[in-house]
Amino acid sequence: MRAGVAIACVALIASVSGCGPSAPPPVPPPVAVTTTALVAFDGTYRGTIQLTAAAPTGSQRSWCDTPPDITLVVQNGAFAYTLAHPNVPQGQGFSSSPTFIVNVETDGSFNSTSPNGQAQMTGRITGQQVTGQISGSACGYAFTAQRS
After folding, report:
1. Residue 98 maps to a domain
2. Which of 145, 148, 146, 141 is nearest to 66 (CA)?
3. Using CA atoms, how far apart are residues 81 and 56, in angstroms rounded to an integer?
4. What is the pLDDT of residues 41-81, one digit of tens each?
5. Cα–Cα distance between 4 and 85 in angstroms, integer?
6. Is 59 a domain residue?
7. pLDDT tens across 72-85, in order?
8. What predicted TM-score, i.e. pTM, was given to this entire model?
9. Of the candidates 68, 82, 64, which has an alpha carbon nearest to the alpha carbon of residue 138?
10. Domain of 102?
11. How far apart are CA 129 and CA 145, in angstroms?
């Protein structure tokens, strides 16, 4: 009986260890985007931002005012930008300074939405320049900056 058990064990081991049909090769892991491509965009970009559209009228139009200088500091393919609105009354429930958290894609493009979902920042870094737009529920802006 021991011989029968031994033969059964050998047969079981042979079928489990690959004597049967082979399994397909494992699927390679997905290629991860490394930050190496994104650091090509790293640097400090300085330029100007200007108002291109304002829906409010009268004294509320000044709510769209923002300082004309823009500085974007890109590190590891990402940056944050706060759009200052110094004339928006505090405590009125309005977003006076939305902050955009932006990730630059490998082609230099970016698209980010403000935390409250009411404004969008889009653009592209090409060479030493970044250009873009910010559009919100009441105000629109265009910006251009050069790497310094």
Report:
1. yes
2. 141
3. 23
4. 999 999 999 999 988 777 788 889 999 999 999 999 999 99
5. 86
6. yes
7. 999 999 999 999 98
8. 0.73
9. 64
10. 35-147
11. 6
**In terms of residues, how long is the chain?**
148
Looking at residue 125, which CATH number applies to its domain? Answer: 2.40.128
* Residue 131 to residues 8, 10, 36, 127, Cα–Cα distance (Å): 73, 70, 22, 11
Is 133 in contact with 142 (CB distance < 8 Å)? Answer: yes
Q: Which residues pair with 123 in a beta bridge?
A: 110, 132
Instruction: Confirm whether 15 is domain-assigned.
Output: no
Query: In whole angstroms, what is the distance from residue 138 CA to residue 61 CA?
Result: 9
The per-residue pLDDT of the chain, averaged, comes to 80
Q: Tokens 């260890």 label which residue?
A: 17
DSSP 54-100: E---GGGGGGG---SEEEEEEBTTEEEEE---TTSPTTSS--SS-EE
- Report the domain count for the chain: 1
- In-domain check, residue 102: yes
Report yes or no: 42 and 130 within 8 Å, Cβ to Cβ.
no
Give the C-alpha distances (Å, rounded to integers) separating 84 from 8, 17, 36, 124, 136.
78, 67, 32, 21, 13
